[in-house]
Specification:
This protein is of the alpha+beta class and about 220 residues long. The chain has seven helices and four strands. The protein folds into two domains: about 70 residues, Helix Hairpins (Orthogonal Bundle), CATH 1.10.287; about 120 residues, Iron/manganese superoxide dismutase, C-terminal domain (minor pseudopilin epsh fold). Helix 2 runs antiparallel to helix 3. The relative contact order is 0.15. Bound molecules: fe (ii) ion.
């Protein structure tokens, strides 16, 4: 099979839909604009894959096309993570969400193992979210050890931890809140984010991550 055949056999990505209107502190207009931006990442990821496929039409990259191939490939990290992280973000929001995970949850136990208390974990996660710059605050589970950790991801692609799985993802690009808050009011946006967290989704993610390692052993 030629390289081109392998790449064109992959189906294009399709933007997911989310029923999120009516959140607390995050307006429908913000969500409408934000979902449109997400759809742009899906399109860009598909366009990149198509362009790379064309450069591989002969089953290899011609020497003169290598600079273009290299640049497009480097952009994959930005566009793909832009797509996927938004899916995690919208996926962990819900109308009527809560501020804390339910008692007895796997996430709660992971917090106890790693941070001691929910308050300590939340303070750390929110501090990551308050970092200056453009990016994401992400709570990951390390499936191999059952521990969680909070990370800053610059743009979309710098700081993701290989093998760790995102279980709670918060967009802190200014487009996530600028229609509702001033640039200096990121803290209020983070408070609103916490009032809309879909904890059952967070729980599903951490349980899936932990069981994936258990099954592979
Ligand atoms: Fe965003």
């Amino acid at each position: 099979m030629k390289g081109n055949d392998m790449m064109t056999a992959d189906p294009a990505y399709t933007a997911k839909t989310y029923d999120l209107f009516g959140l607390s502190g995050i307006s429908d207009e913000t969500l409408r604009v934000h979902l449109g931006l997400y759809e742009g990442y899906v399109k860009a990821a598909n366009d990149l894959r198509e362009q790379l496929s064309e450069l591989m039409q002969k089953g290899k990259v011609d020497h003169e096309h290598m600079p273009a191939y290299s640049e497009l490939t480097r952009r994959l990290g930005f566009e793909f993570n832009g797509m996927v992280l938004h899916e995690y973000y919208f996926g962990n929001l819900r109308r009527g969400g809560g501020d804390q995970p339910p008692n007895g949850s796997a996430f709660g136990r992971a917090i106890e193992r790693t941070f001691g208390t929910y308050e300590h974990w939340k303070a750390d996660f929110c501090s990551v979210g308050m970092m200056r710059g453009v990016g994401w605050a992400i709570c990951n589970v390390d499936p191999a050890r059952g521990l969680i950790s909070n990370h800053w991801v610059s743009l979309h692609e710098h700081g993701n931890i290989a093998g760790f799985l995102p279980i709670l993802v918060m967009d802190v690009w200014e487009h996530a809140y600028l229609l509702d808050y001033q640039p200096s009011e990121r803290k209020q946006y983070i408070d609103s984010f916490f009032s809309n967290i879909a904890w059952p989704v967070v729980e599903e993610r951490i349980q899936a991550g932990l069981s994936s390692v258990a099954l592979s052993r």
